[in-house]
Amino acid sequence: MRALRPHAPVIMSGNALYTDLSGYYDLMCADIDYAAQSHCVQRLHQLFGNGGKRHLDLACGTGPHVRHFLDAGYVSSGLDINQPMLDRAAQRCPEARFARQDMCGFQVDEPLELITCFLYSIHYSASIERLKACIASVHGALAAGGVFCFNAVDKQCIDNASFVSHSTRHAEGQFRFSSGWYYRGEGDAQALRLRIERSVAGQTEVWHDEHPMVAVNFAELQSLLAPYFEVQVLEHDYQRLTPWDGSSGNALFACTRR
User: Fold this and answer.
1) Do residues 104 and 209 share a domain?
2) Running DSSP on this structure, what letter comes out for residue 240?
3) What is residue 10's three-state secondary structure?
């Protein structure tokens, strides 16, 4: 982790924060119910898939979802563009295969039955053209009847003043993580804004980061998916499966390869 002056906000570009703080990534995500998310997608795969067990997790990070799929009997693998994340994923899931690849242009050795992309990571495509390339890459990697599952946010429903946060204690101090979407109201660009505080021995360090993300509404997203997939849109609820109500700004997508 790079040295910072106490109380000094620092702006990092791209995925620099994840590179420098990869050791703290799991702390950032400590409030996420990986088990519930993984089990929900496994149910979707049972409902809409072809019964196969070969699985790839896009933007897998340190591999917590991959771990749950392995434990459920899947032949699971992951890809990410961040090598420190993949190194930690390999430690968590030594029986899985991990690859440093771009989800907007990846290849696999054999067709897969399930591809996932959790935690809104589909938006890391960062532009409509790259999002199209990601969808095409997924389609090319899936076997007939394979399923692509991910979650997304509708740009028209983003509240720039809204954010989520949580705190957790670690051997290296008390951490507080905050994140929120920002959309200027037009175009296909939005941002994920992150703030991290670490307090130790009465001093506080602060990191700010802003990640460029692609902005779409759900009608646009369904239009991009339609040439490749039969698309089911569901409420963003990992405990029960219900159709999207047509107005909420977060949703789960279960897409079966044509």
Assistant:
1) no
2) S
3) strand
Q: Does 108 fall in a domain? A: yes
125 located within any domain: yes
Kindly state whether residues 54 and 129 are assigned to the same domain.
yes
7-51 per-position pLDDT tens digit = 333 334 445 545 555 677 888 888 999 999 999 999 999 999 999
Which residues partner with 151 through β-bridges?
Answer: 252
Helix (H) or strand (E) holding 247: none
Write the DSSP symbol of residue 235: E
Q: What is the pLDDT of residues 210-252, one digit of tens each?
A: 999 999 999 999 999 999 999 999 999 999 999 999 999 999 9
What token pair was written down for 182? 């920002």
pTM given for the model: 0.91
Count CB-CB contacts under 10 A for residue 81: 15
**Cβ atoms 219, 246 nearer than 8 A:** no
Range of the domain at 205: 10-27+156-214
Residue 178: strand pairing partners: 165, 195
Tell which residue, 226, 93, 75, 85, has the closest CA to residue 148.
226
Amino acid, res. 43: R
**194 and 228 co-located in one domain:** no
What ranges in the chain are assigned the alpha helix state H? 16-20, 25-28, 34-48, 64-71, 83-92, 128-141, 218-225
Distance, in Å, from the CA atom of 224 to the CA atom of 244, rounded to the nearest integer, reads: 18
* Strand order from edge to edge, sheet including 10-12: 10-12, 203-214, 189-200, 173-183, 164-170
> Contact at 8 Å (CB) between 222 and 230?
no
